[in-house]
Request: fold
Amino acid sequence: MSDFYQNGVITNFHNLTRRSNEDIEQQMVQFAAKRKMGLILPSLFTELEGPALNNIIDQLVRVPYLEEIVIGLDQADRDQFMYARDFFSRLPQRHRILWNDGPRLQAINSELEGKGLAPTQPGKGRNVWFCCGYTLASDRTECVAFHDCDVVTYDRNLLARLLYPLANPAFQYEFSKGFYARFAGNKLNGRVGRLLVGPLLRSLQKVYGHSEYLDYLSSFHYPLSGEFAMRTQVLNGIKIPGDWGLEIGVLSEIYRNHTTRQSCQVEIADNYDHKHQPLAEMDGSGGLQRMSNDIVQSLLRKLATMGVPLTRDSFRVLKATYYRNALDIMEIYNHEAAMNGLSFDQHTEEAAVELFTQSILDAGESFIQRPNDKPFIPSWNRVRSAFPDIFPRICQAVKEDNQGKV
Reply:
């Protein structure tokens, strides 16, 4: 049984009664008559070949309240895109696939590049950004959810609970964030959330002083979750990072543009498991190493915009403060695992903490050396001001791709 604790910063919705899919979906259908709902699925082609996405689609087939599903497809050639059309064709809802590597969207991307308005790197951030643009252009929904395509424990109740606070016309929320427990294979998962973000947020408060923004981030049980939802009109004004800082960047933009009373977090699953990242790839980059670096830089950039003085000396203090906090919290997770009969590999956990500690220094040095970096993808409001016809052009490109036109 979950608790019902409220921290007073944002609203916490708990899963107290394990409400059935049929019961909550019946109410969601009623809400949909007043607030139409959509879903954005950023996907790699390789995810179409795994078991997770196949189960997700099987679950979505049974969802009765969605107006539109927008699928962003990355790393796919033409044959793979045509395969994806067949793969998603069993969805009964209106759905459109954005072939991000196709010639039509690539041509639009090239025009945006000419004005400095395109994402500077491929990846999930660019995928999500184009899906947001299409959702705004389609103009069929009033609230839209996002979730990843590698969730192996997916149940459609997750989506209903995530959208409920936005769909209910009696509620005032603009943003909803999912949270859940991360454990599988008899051990705790979610190392970046547990061992980096949590202790780092506390360390930032100690080093740079109290911040309502850091209080806001700390109030989320799982700030790195890829499951979130927002009113569709919110998509117009947010700037999102194009790297692994996407989730932190979205939270930061919501904080900048909306009051905390308009944000909530929802317990959307008893347990959640998805693809796990290695500490680092074979070449020493990528994996959790790159992810942690991007996340730290995202936090530093936001603090800088709020007038926090960031220096090399302060980064060294931050590194030492974080390391001590992370080891302390690691010990607490050791006790948590023991009480629940889970295994706990102290060596692996400490190796992750040491990697994250180095990431803080590396991210700080990158921040100092490249102060003119533009990590955020421009908002769609700005893009539309430069290209007033951008939305009908995106709609036309997606329509022709989905019709299979050469």
About this structure: The first strand starts at residue 11 and ends at 13. The CA atoms of residues 2 and 16 lie 6 Å apart. The two ends are 54 Å apart (CA to CA).
